[in-house]
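Hi all, long-time lurker, first post. I run a small reading group and we've been trying to get comfortable going from sequence to structure in the token notation. Rather than ask abstract questions, I figured I'd post a concrete chain and ask someone more experienced to write out its structure so we can walk through it together at our next meeting. Sequence below, copied exactly:
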Amino acid sequence: MKPEERNRSVMTITREIAHAEQSAYIEVPFEMPEHVEELVVTYTIESHSEQRAVIDLGLRDSKRVRGWSGGARKQFQVGLEKATPGYTSGDLTPGDWAVLHNAYKVPSEGCSVHVTIEFLYKTPRWLKGDLHTHSVNSDGTYTIEENAAIMEELGCDFIAMTDHNAVSQNMTYPRNTNVLMIPGMEFTTNFGHSNFLGVADPILDFRVKEQGDVEAKIAEARANGAKIVINHPHCEFCPWEWDFNVDHDWVEVWNGPFADRNARAVQWWHDQLVSGRRLVAVGGSDTHRPDPYVKHAMPCTWVYASEKTVDGILRAIDLGHVCITYAPQGPFVELNCGTYMVGDVVPAGESINEVAFQAEDLLIGDTVKLISNRGLEKEIEVTEAGRLAFQFEIQGTTFIRAEVWRHFEEVDMTLMAALTNPIYLDK
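-- Answer (accepted) --
Happy to help. Here is the structure in token form:
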């Protein structure tokens, strides 16, 4: 279940610095292991006299200096896509690395520097965030900084920056946040919207007149590396009125608070699954401004990714390792068939006849539904808050997925509270 603890290892190295080394640059070498997602370095200085020692801090990799903070910091972090100011994110290539010191002031009796190096490894885990947001870069009122801060306060891991026909947000987003900022753009036409995710500048010109133009823009975005999402396809205000056969990767079945437009999108998606298509469903808040109902990470998209990077998250969505909850607090649902999870295909010949359902953060009165190509397979009313787990036979189905429905007193309506992508079964 969520969240998984990240794999990590820690080492501490003590370097004695003599007074004779004052003004020298000193290296504390270490070996960078494989599969590291983030490096955290902390140091303390122990003076051997009453005189204060001043030892600066920095980092090099096997090729170059990766950062320098002098005496301004006692800790820094370097990740694949984010780093402490003064340090450069990027590849954490295995090999010979070193913590750097400048022995600026060393007491006559010398000092000890204790360097603690923590390696956080790429660990498959559930990450949560919002795949559809707006800012002052188009028609929103939030700045990108405000969006990031709100998401961080919610405990989320990522946010997609999808302003209407704009890419400036992808050039000016804040780097000093723990929230992963996914570059994007909402390709906004008069007859439908589509998110282009994963690249900073997917198309040169958004203007279209006809179906062929739309297909050309999508092809341009695809060639530039973008993932294509058809947004709120059955919205009453801005539905997808272009051909549904356009090239796309995923469909946004849950946009903002669950409403009829989302119910129609879920039904359309379900019909695609029944027809034999394996199409990934995602969600997004589509938040623009403060609103009592349209809020960040409502719905919240959960992604089981091997690493917290843009590519890692998008690759995991492509695999269908996705579930959606009405808010970051859940209820969180998982389906497994042996070692297979949502989005996976159970190969023909596997002797697996049951799916394992697990859910957390359920409330009394919630309704759990298991749905297959044959329709509603099982329905359970939750009688005890918290966790629910059970096994269910899936013989004869081509896919199985789960929904949780809840009565929300705020609107006096029973609405979707969670949705999983299917586990598919080959015949």
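A couple of things your group might point at:
DSSP finds five helices and 28 strands in the chain.
Residues 123 and 179 are 17 Å apart (CA to CA).
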